[in-house]
Amino acid sequence: MIIRKERPTDFQIVFSLIKEAFEHEPFSDGKEHFLVERLRQSDSFIPELSLIAEINEEIVGHILLSRLSIKNETDRFESLALAPVSVLPSHQRKGIGSLLIQEAHKRAKALGFRSIVLLGHEDYYPKFGYKVAETFGIDFPFDAPARNCMVLELVPDGLLHVKGTVEYPKAFFE
Fold this sequence. Notes:
Blueprint: E1 2-5, H1 11-22, H2 32-40, E2 50-55, E3 58-71, E4 76-87, H3 96-110, E5 115-119, E6 131-132, E7 138-139, E8 149-153, E9 164-167
Parallel strand pairs: 4-5, 7-9
Antiparallel strand pairs: 1-2, 2-3, 3-4, 3-9, 5-8, 6-8
Helix pairs in contact: 1-2
């Protein structure tokens, strides 16, 4: 398996992959593939952080990290959103999602980012170092269980003195 940067020629395959990956997920709205399309057209899109996993030249997984802010009354802090990570159902539970997450973390850190925010499964993401956001004084702009609202410090103290509310790009709400 190789992990590489997504290319424009991959967009249609990735669209279908994401749709299929989330088709039967109980906590999904079934529209993650449209979210990725909107994010690609936004200022939040970072091409180097849209990655695919390939096995024998078949695209089997995708992950996207996009730019967002954490803001309070006086400050704004740059961070990233992990959304979504997708693996074809026929290739799930084989470690592909984990490898995509680890590689995305590595590349984001190399680009100088200090943290990542996500809304995700409380039993899955902590194994990658994600912690409940409210323990850092970080809130999400919608009603969701605190255990599912998480952050990751890509570098030591990456969230030191960062407190506020996550401000998602408008592409997340269109």
